[in-house]
From TrEMBL:
Residues annotated as transmembrane: none
Protein name as it appears in the record: GST C-terminal domain-containing protein
A family per Pfam: GST_C
Range of residues in the leader sequence: none
Organism: Lachnellula suecica
Domain GST C-terminal as annotated: residue spans: 111-252
PANTHER family listed in its UniProt record: GLUTATHIONE S-TRANSFERASE 1 (PTHR44051:SF9), GLUTATHIONE S-TRANSFERASE-RELATED (PTHR44051)
Alphabetical list of PROSITE patterns matching this protein: GST_CTER
Length: 282
């Protein structure tokens, strides 16, 4: 374990299945292993009858991820990092908070050039990559959720739209491929940074749903494999309950985050299931 960081707050992650909360859990697992950070994890099934109520109780948006902060000791006043005291929303902002408060600066790029690069791919991840992946997924899901009698008709009607967005994704993957090199194997530059965490969710989804061709974009494929191969990430994936087939284009991984015994977790919520798979809505 690296240098221990003084922990002023204990975060609690409210994780809704198939959400970007997994990236937050991964980031906390990294700092749990390197700096001894402790956190709580509460898991909620996306279609649970009480899920929306539970999330609305901690955030007006009712979306995942949400992180609440419990001050350690009375010397730390309530933190107004965003709008609500001791409450964090938006995965990018949560990742920034984790970097600012639970690390010794190892997620900050070392050179000015890499700082600019990190900022670019940070915005590229959410504003370009994830947005386009969401478009493809949306039209696939609408068709898959339709009654059987019109499902194939909708798939036929949506196919040109899906093909158009997949073409856009190929251009996006090309930008990503050209941005990586032996000297800069990470989107943050020479070492992993917040841009890589932000890029991972959309790329996990791309890989699982078959949007991404690993042979055509070998450097991106190598980067993605490196994110999954990190010890903390690998342990999360390997502790999955089992692999299932869902009504989707490919077999999807299903990760149970309940009772996985992660190093930094103080306690899990009482909810009985939380699954990580991008085919759940389909």
């Amino acid at each position: 374990m690296a240098q221990t960081v003084e922990q002023k707050w204990i975060p609690t992650v409210y994780n809704m299945s198939s959400s970007q909360a997994f990236v937050v859990v991964w980031a906390l697992e990294e700092v749990a292993g390197s700096h001894g950070i402790k956190y709580n994890l509460k898991n909620f099934p996306r279609r649970g009858k009480d899920t929306n109520t539970e999330f609305k109780a901690v955030s007006p948006l009712g979306k995942s991820p949400v992180v609440t902060l419990e001050p350690v000791g009375s010397q730390h006043p309530p933190l107004e990092y965003q709008v609500l005291p001791n409450t964090l929303i938006e995965s990018s902002s949560i990742l920034q908070f984790i970097s600012d408060n639970f690390t010794t600066g190892e997620r900050v790029p070392e050179s000015p050039q890499d700082k600019l690069r990190d900022a670019f791919f940070h915005n590229f991840a959410k504003g370009t990559l994830l947005a386009k992946v969401d478009f493809v997924l949306l039209f696939e899901v609408i068709a898959m959720l339709a009654p059987w009698g019109i499902r194939h008709l909708l798939l036929l009607l949506f196919r040109p739209i899906i093909s158009h967005f997949l073409g856009d994704l190929r251009d996006i993957y090309t930008v990503m491929e050209n941005g990586l090199s032996e000297e800069k194997p990470w989107f943050s530059g020479s070492k992993i940074g917040l841009a890589d965490f932000n890029m991972s969710f959309a790329m996990d989804m791309s890989a699982q749903r078959g949007y991404f061709d690993t042979e055509k974009y070998p450097k991106v494929a190598k980067w993605h494999a490196a994110t999954l191969g990190r010890p903390r990430t690998r342990e999360l994936w390997e502790r999955q309950a089992h692999t299932i087939w869902l009504l989707s284009r490919r077999p999807l991984l299903r990760l149970c985050l309940d009772n996985i015994g992660t190093e930094g977790v103080i306690s899990n919520g009482p909810e009985s299931e939380s699954f990580f798979s991008y085919g759940e809505l389909a």
